[in-house]
Structures
1.
Amino acid sequence: MANTRSAKKRIRQNVKRRMHNKYYRTHARTQVKAARQLIQGGERDAAVEAVQQAVSALDQAASKGVIHQNNAARRKSRLLKRLATME
């Protein structure tokens, strides 16, 4: 357990930041999962819309520093590749 005031404050900050980051990471994962399911389902128009939302969520997570830029780029690339094979 932390003994100094600064260490206790750092613990509070870390908890707050972890919850903030968790929101963006979870949102991005959910969007990607929904897009994948629609691609597998064969629903073309809905899949395109879902992929756009997933790409936006990944970009937002990367811009916040929640995930690395290259990680977001890799996930977007894989998702768009799946969409292209659907067509």
Note: Residues 40 and 46 are 11 Å apart (CA to CA).
2.
Amino acid sequence: MIMVDTKPFAVVPHGKGFFCAMITEASPAIIMRVKDFGESDLLVTFFTPHKGQLKGVAKGARRSLKRFVNALDICSLINLEFTSKREGSLCLLHSGKLISPYPALRSDFGALSKASFMIEMTEILFPVGVADPNMFELLKEAFEAMAEGRPNGLIALIFEARAMALGGYGINLERCAVCGRPYRGEGMAVFNREKGTVSCLKCQEPSALSPAMTPDTVGVLEKMQGETLYQSKSLMLGDETLEELKSVLKLHREYRLEKKLKTAKYVE
């Protein structure tokens, strides 16, 4: 079992005063990106439960892999030892021990493309300095589910709805954004893109930018936003519900994040 140390500095007595000594931390981490850095180093972006997204340098990792045996492949789950120098600076990576490589993600282009979409969403919703253990679990569970052979498209859809909610951009499904009448799962609802909520048919007409949603679609979206991925694994979606969800989530994502993700083409 890995103990996560969230205090990278210790105050150590020294003569008449004190100095701060950097402490090596150990944490589960998901590898998000890896690229060459200098002649023999690697620059690694990784995501942890309690510190979120971090970047660090693995010194000499391209020449000697003894400290990182098969551990620095993208999408891999590892136990990572690293030292944080100061907030906003690159970490120094000391060693990594592979927990799960999720090989199916690299042997299946569809799965890898969906994983790339999930990584990009995580980077945007939880930039450096913003941590959420629930987001770490969501990303890990999504990779595990796809590695087990569950439908990539459905996993990506559940991931997107839950990630947006965890990032503070959940769609409010409780009441009409205009008249305030509670939505009780009866009759069609209309997605209100500008307010990130729903409206009733009396207050808003459906359109290309404000698509209608059946009660089933609203119910499924509510579960996706509020449950863990494993709790949502039993969801059965009909073609109509699936298409409505894709349309609403795409409109919501692009409006709230104010950009089109580079990897969005893999889920649209």
Note: DSSP finds six helices and eleven strands in the chain.
3.
Amino acid sequence: MSDIVIPESTEQVIADSTFRFEGTFRYVSARGVRNPERHLMIARDVREMTVVTTEDQLGDVDVIEMNADRWLLLAIDCANPFYCVGFIAKISAALSGAGLDILVISTFSCDWVFVKEDDGDRAAGVLRGLGFRG
């Protein structure tokens, strides 16, 4: 028998979930990176390597191009990770409905929503409006 519990509603999972601010980051297209353990994320696809890192760690990155904006990380701790249909869709729809540009990444233990640095307070208000605690 499996220990997986499928929630009855996305709204209930949101009400049981929290978020927190985790710092400001830069998105970089890179040729290479030293000390990978110092960076939040390194992702590769067939076209490029992307590094998400703090400004003080940019010296470790062989930068091709850097996004002009600084991105504030909202780490979302889902009360029922992996098994909540519509969880990311609800978050994305609410934030985009408020006119916020977002970047979303899911890790094993939480979901990361990046908003432009100046939009942090608005984004937190939207998440609280959805029912998140944070």
Note: Residues 104 and 113 are 5 Å apart (CA to CA).
4.
Amino acid sequence: MAARPPLAPEIAQSLALAMVAASEAPVLLLDGDLTVIAASASFCRSFEIEPAETSGLPVFELGSGEWNVRQLRALLKAVASGMAAVPAYEMRLNRDGREPRQLVVTAHKLEFGDTEHVHLLVTVSDVTEARIAEKLKDDLLREKAILLQEVQHRVANSLQIIASVLMQSARNVQSEETRTYLHDAHSRVMSIAAVQKQLAASRLGDVELRPYFTQLCESLGASMIRDHDRQTIEVHTDDSAVKADVSVSLGLIVTELVINALKHAFPGGRGGKISVDYLAHGPNWTLSVGDDGVGMPEDLASATPGLGTSIVEALARQLRARVQVADGRPGTVVSVIHTQIVAVEDEPEAEAV
């Protein structure tokens, strides 16, 4: 099939003029000297220029000369010489007595078989409102971040005050049972403070569990372990990171299980070790807190579940996980297990030969 012959220069230019005239976007058609051949009605209307004052005028003399921008001049000359194209040049158009406008200019050299005459198609997009909206959004996000930081600071201070009041009250009460409850409450508040600190550091993104659990257990150990040479808490996790809301539930589970182990696994101040382990494989994960203490009571069925057990079970249900208690031989291991069955499509049967 024979190639279609190029359009005659007169026809090509007439076609270009017709396209500019029909354009609903601000468009200019320039010659090689950067003189306006045609301007769309949208261009004249957008920038308040009389259509009759555009044709035959250098582009840099349009209006009151506000288009005479050094960078724009250099770019258009480069396009006219064939050295470059301008896919998106953003500029600020300053006009006397009017609000400045933020524009995105694109310029391309037209090719239609006329090697003697150069034509440039220039389109202009007004992005002023979009840039104002972006700045407003950035300002709001920055203000939100400042307010959130202030709230987190106040929450941290409040938790520290509550913990101090609980500890002071525990020193002053006469009842050993009440003192125990106050110490438990103090430990829970300190663990919440550690959770809050870690979440603040994560900036609401995914929370890495290894440093999170480590800091949490250090906080629990500092508030509950008297002799760190005899009792220790170790953390063993993979490189998992979870959403902030999931990390809160996991942190509270670790808190309750570690507190429970410290209270019951090592009676009489005996030594021992508590191990916090987390391992994930795809959507499935297991969180375990084990100790090498005295182990579970022989009559486990008659034991009354405490507050910590109820909290752990409620949090596990929230995470769609189950709680499993096992004999650690020695000690006890409590695991929270999340299992998600991944559906596997049946493989197609082999075609008969």
Note: The two ends are 46 Å apart (CA to CA).
